Amino acid sequence: MTFVLEAEGLGKRYGRHEALADCNLQIPEGRVVGLVGPNGAGKSTFLGLACGLIQPSEGTIKVLGHHPAAGTDQLARVGFVAQDTPVYANLTVAEHLRLGAELNPRWDQKLAERQVRQLNLKPDHKAGRLSGGQRAQLALTIAAAKRPELLIFDEPVAALDPLARRGFLQNLMEFVAELEASVILSSHLLGDLERICDHVVVLGDGRLQVAGEADDLVAEHYRLVGAQGDFEDLPQDIEIIQAAHTDRQTTLIVRSTGPIPHHFTEATHLDLEDIILAYMSRSAYASVTGTAQQFLEARQ
C-alpha cells in the first residue's frame, strides 16, 4: 500500500506548550480524509507540518514519500488552502490565474479558465469584492489548477453559508475525480465530512485519538446499554471509549474488531458522527476509557 502521508513520533512544541505529541499515522493514497478535533486539538499544527510551513520538534513526517516542502518539485505536488481561503484582495481573478501560471510548473490554465467560467467569476473583478463563497471557490480553483497529487484544506468552509458550502464541496469532489488526487480536509462540520470522507483522523489535546477507514470505524464501534452489573463479563479485548452511568443503567461506547457477545441485546452500531464525537469527548473530558478489564477495576 502506498501512503500519501506518514508520521512517526511526530511532535511540535511552542516553548513549553505541546501542540502535537507522539503522532504515529499512515494515510493511504486516494482517500478523502476528514481531520477533526476540538479547538486546540492540534489540527492546524498538523497541517502546517504536512505542508512544510513549520518544522517538527521531534519525530518525522513524509508527504508523498518526501519531507514536506523539500524543493520546488515537492511543492508542486501539494495544493494547500489555509483558513479563511486567502486570496489577494487587490488582484483581479485574471491576475490570480496569471500569478498561478508563473509560480506553478504544472499549472493547468484550461482547467482554471473553465472553472472560472462555470462559477461566473468575472476576470476583471478584484478578489476583495467577491463574496465569501466566491473567494473560497477561487482559492480552490488555484489549488486544483496546480494539478497536485494531494490537496490540503484547513477549515475552508467554516465561514460559508450552507449553499456556498455545498457548492464548494461539490466542486472539490469533482476536482478529486478529475485529478485523481488525495485530500486532507480539516473541518468542524461533521455532517459535511460524513458525506464526503472515506477516511477519518481524530485529534484531541494534541494527540491522535483514532484514525482509519470510515466504513471500518462504523463496523467496529457499538453503543451498549444495560444495567450496571451487565458488563462484568465483557470480553477483555473490547476497548471502552466512553462510559456514562445513571442510577438505573450504564451506557458504553466501545470498539471491537470481533463480534459483540449475543447476550448484549442492546448493542447498536454508531454512525460516523457519533464515533467522532465520542473520541472528541474522551480527549476533552477524560472519560473512563480503556479495556474491559480496566473498566471493571475502576468500578471496584
TrEMBL record:
The keyword Hydrolase is assigned to this record: no
Ranges where the ABC transporter domain occurs: 5-230
InterPro entries: AAA+_ATPase, ABC_transporter-like_ATP-bd, P-loop_NTPase
Similarity comment: family membership: Belongs to the ABC transporter superfamily.
PROSITE patterns membership: ABC_TRANSPORTER_2
SMART domains referenced in this protein's UniProt entry, alphabetically: AAA (SM00382)
Protein name per UniProt: ABC transporter ATP-binding protein
GO MF term (any one): ATP binding
UniProt keyword terms in alphabetical order: ATP-binding, Nucleotide-binding, Transport
Origin organism lineage: Bacteria, Bacillati, Actinomycetota, Actinomycetes, Kitasatosporales
